[in-house]
Amino acid sequence: MSVELAQSAFDRTAVDRLSSALREPDWMRQRRFEGLLGFDELPLPSGRQLDWSKLDLATLTPSRELAVKQTCLPDDLVKRGVIFCDLQTALRDHAALLEEYFMTCGVPVRDNKFAALHAAFWTNGSLLYVPKEVEIEIPLRAEWFAAGRNAGHFGHTLVIADQHAKLTYVDRYQSDTDEGAGLFAGVTELLLGEGANVVYIADQRWGRHVWDVSTCRAVLQNDASLTWLNVGLGSVLTKNRIETILTGSGSSTEMLGVTLAQPGQAIYYDTLQDHRVPYTKSDLQFKAALKERARTVYEGTIKVRPRAQKTDAYQASRNLLLNRNARADATPTLEIEANDVRCTHGATVGPVDGDQLFYLRSRGLTRTDAVRLLVAGFFDQPLAYIPNDALREELRQSLDQALTTG
After folding, report:
1. How far, in Å, CA of 161 to CA of 362, rounded?
2. Burial of 103 (0-12, 13-18, 19+ CB in 10 A)
């Protein structure tokens, strides 16, 4: 299926108009045009029973109504060289940093069709740069809100953690549910220097008219460590690429997913644990609970390159069906080109355990409360990786609320 582009507002004139309105430097304007060309030339992402004909770009217009509100950075961190600002401010005050890292070594402009469209039409975003040896104790946040009917939104997150930097960062994406269709084609780039330690949380709560087609990639240098949690609570359809590239010896990642799929919602996750050098470790746990008529598709790959000896990698997709007509598909894959590794994977799909449900009912709980308790326990394992108690409890409450009211 092709994405309809006849008389689309996503064209060269729109790119030129947007870049001129933002008074961008020539290098950014050229990067936008390269993205538009890539969108025209690259194929659509594959997806099991994913019908792209339902996404009609001819009915959408690129929108600048994507607001992002960031944590106010304390003065002591500013004095230590931390940069946390929107991308328009970054273009003005930190152009050299942005030119070097924006869609170059993380998610290149022509990485895939929708990343290329993002490169052409991005309108807002966050830059976080943490210098060497700087540790940030408080979680930093960016609160995103998309408005406008039949709009295409393109938000960008760029996190650069220099050597031995330490931080926790949260992106929360929200919108009301509106008539018509909406598109969010986001890009997240997490670049971790030697020995950096990053906790990153992407909390997605789009309205039920939004197609979320985003690309998220982390690149880790020697001894870097990343804990990465993806929370999926919104959208009508989500098709996300979530990838960690381990390019430095001793680097490690914990890739975690928590999804509560509402009635009629479709969630597609494509993950990659890419081990390129020796002595790297990755641990992936994606969990989904599905209500009636919900659909999830997980396709994950552990890739071990020929020289990546002593790789230690694990991958698990666990799916809990809360109704009989929910459906979850999981395809974990190993691509191993080295001979001294430890790699395991697995997937499970099943209903709520009848014995556990009976036990809780026999203790006086209603069926609704018993299911809530079982789902909370099901999600507790990936949430336990979040080191901040307040954040962990906030996410638990959000999941419980979505289970009750979604």
Report:
1. 51
2. buried
CA 296 to CA 158: how far, in whole Å? 28
Tell the residue number behind the tokens 């770009």, with chain if given: 57
Token pair listed for 328? 């979850």
Helices (H) and strands (E) in the chain, counts: 9, 21
Q: Is the model's pTM score more than 0.85? A: yes
Q: What is the pLDDT of residues 194-221, one digit of tens each?
A: 999 999 999 999 999 999 999 999 999 9
* Per-residue pLDDT band at 3 (split at 50, 70, 90): low
**Containing H/E element for 382?**
helix 367-383
Q: b vs e for 67-89, b when ≥16 Cβ sit within 10 Å of the residue's Cβ?
A: ebeebebeeebeeeebbbbbbee
The predicted-structure confidence for 39-94, as pLDDT tens digits, reads as follows 999 999 887 778 888 888 888 999 988 999 999 999 999 999 999 999 999 999 99
Distance CA 217, CA 249 (A): 18
Residue 183: its pLDDT value, please?
Answer: 95
Residue 293: what are its φ and ψ, rounded to 5°? Answer: 60, 10
User: Per-residue DSSP letters for 317-377?
Assistant: EEEEESSTT-EEEEEEEEEE--SS-EEEEEEEEEE--HHHHHHHHHTT--HHHHHHHHHHH
pLDDT at 122 over 50: yes
**At a CB cut-off of 8 Å and minimum separation 6, what does 157 contact?**
125, 126, 128, 142, 171, 186, 187, 188, 189
Identity of residue 209? H
Q: Choose among 226, 205, 206: nearest CA to 216.
A: 226
Which H/E stretch holds residue 268? strand 266-275
C-alpha dihedral sign at 183, 269, 214, 10: negative
Angle at 364 (CA atoms; ends 359, 366), nearest 5 degrees:
90
Q: Are 399 and 258 in contact (CB under 8 A)?
A: yes
> ∠270-100-73 over CA atoms, to 5°?
85
> Each residue of 266-281: pLDDT tens digit?
999 999 999 999 999 9
CB atoms within 10 A of CB 363: 8
260: its two tokens? 């509560």
Q: How far apart are CA 152 and CA 118, in angstroms?
A: 10
